[in-house]
C-alpha cells in the first residue's frame, strides 16, 4: 500500500498543500472527501460517534484511528487512557504530532499483550473486516482483547438502499459478491492511485448473527439518519 490516506492526513496537519481525497467504490462514482473532516472535534462529530465516545470507559483501544480525533477527545476531554492503532504509518505519525500519548502502527489481528474495557471501531468500523467471511476471525480477535465486562463499540451502515430495485420491488445485486455489503474501494490523492482494497458494510442483523456465533451479545444502541447504526458487543 502507498499509504495515500495517511499522506493526506499528514499533509493536512503539516500544511503541506493538502488536497481532497478522491474515493470510488465498486458500486459508486468518484467522490471528493475533504481531509479536514477527519480532524473534527467532538462537537462536529455525527451523533453516532458522539454516543460511542460517551459510552467509552476504562482502558480504551481505538482501532483504525486515522487522524486520531476520537482518541484525542477521550484523552484530552475525559482524561481516559487510550491506545490508538492504525495500519497507516503517516496517520500514526500525525496522531503523535497531535499529542496522542499512545499511538502505534499495528494491525488489529496482530495486536497482543494488552486487554481493554472498551474497543472502538468507528467510521464504518466493520470496514476493516473486508469480506463477510472474515467476520469470525476479527470478532474472535476483538473478543480476546476484552477485559471482563468489556465492550466493543462498532458502527456501520446497511447499504441495501444503494442498489436498484427490479419490477417486483426486489434489489438488483451483482452476483459476484457473497454479500451486498462487500465493496472494493479505490482511493486517489495528488494524482496517485492506491491499491484497491476490500471494505465491508454490515447491516445490523448480519452483525448480530456474527456476534452471537462468536459468543458475543449484540445490542443496537443508536440508529443514524442514513441507514447507519451504532452497536455494542459484549461477552
From TrEMBL:
Q: What is this protein called?
A: Class I SAM-dependent methyltransferase
Listed Gene3D superfamilies: Vaccinia Virus protein VP39
Q: Which residues form a coiled coil?
A: none
Top-tier EC class:
transferase
Cite the EC number.
2.1.1.222, 2.1.1.64
Q: Which residues form the Methyltransferase domain?
A: 58-191
GO BP term, example:
methylation
Gene Ontology MF term list: 2-polyprenyl-6-hydroxyphenol methylase activity; 3-demethylubiquinol 3-O-methyltransferase activity
Protein source organism: Flavobacterium quisquiliarum
* Keywords, alphabetical: Methyltransferase, Transferase
Q: Which Pfam families match?
A: Methyltransf_31 (PF13847)
Which lineage is the organism of this entry classified under, starting from the top rank? Answer: Bacteria, Pseudomonadati, Bacteroidota, Flavobacteriia, Flavobacteriales
Q: Which SUPFAM superfamilies match?
A: S-adenosyl-L-methionine-dependent methyltransferases
Query: Which InterPro entries does the record cross-reference, listed alphabetically?
Result: Methyltranfer_dom, SAM-dependent_MTases_sf
Q: Which PANTHER family match?
A: JUVENILE HORMONE ACID O-METHYLTRANSFERASE, METHYLTRANSFERASE
Amino acid at each position: 500500500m502507498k499509504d495515500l490516506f495517511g499522506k493526506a492526513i499528514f499533509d493536512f496537519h503539516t500544511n503541506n498543500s493538502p488536497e481532497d481525497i478522491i474515493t470510488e467504490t465498486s458500486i459508486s462514482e468518484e467522490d471528493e472527501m475533504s481531509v479536514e473532516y477527519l480532524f473534527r472535534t467532538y462537537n462536529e462529530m455525527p451523533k453516532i460517534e458522539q454516543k460511542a465516545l460517551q459510552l467509552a470507559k476504562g482502558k480504551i483501544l481505538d482501532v483504525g484511528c486515522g487522524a486520531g480525533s476520537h482518541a484525542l477527545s477521550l484523552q484530552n476531554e475525559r482524561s481516559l487512557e487510550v491506545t490508538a492503532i492504525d495500519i497507516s504509518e503517516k496517520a500514526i505519525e500525525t496522531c503523535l504530532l497531535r499529542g496522542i500519548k499512545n499511538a502505534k502502527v499495528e494491525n488489529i489481528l496482530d495486536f497482543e499483550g494488552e486487554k481493554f474495557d472498551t474497543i472502538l471501531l468507528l467510521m464504518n468500523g466493520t470496514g476493516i473486516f473486508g469480506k463477510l467471511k472474515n467476520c469470525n476471525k476479527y470478532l474472535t480477535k476483538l473478543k480476546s482483547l476484552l477485559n471482563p465486562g468489556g465492550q466493543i463499540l462498532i458502527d456501520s451502515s446497511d447499504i441495501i438502499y444503494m442498489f436498484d430495485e427490479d419490477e417486483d420491488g426486489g434489489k438488483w445485486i451483482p452476483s459476484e459478491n457473497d454479500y451486498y455489503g462487500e465493496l472494493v474501494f479505490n482511493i486517489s490523492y495528488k494524482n496517485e492511485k492506491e491499491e484497491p482494497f476490500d471494505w465491508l458494510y454490515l447491516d445490523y442483523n448480519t452483525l448480530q448473527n456474527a456476534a452471537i456465533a462468536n459468543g458475543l451479545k449484540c445490542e443496537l444502541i443508536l440508529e443514524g439518519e442514513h441507514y447507519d447504526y451504532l452497536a455494542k458487543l459484549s461477552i
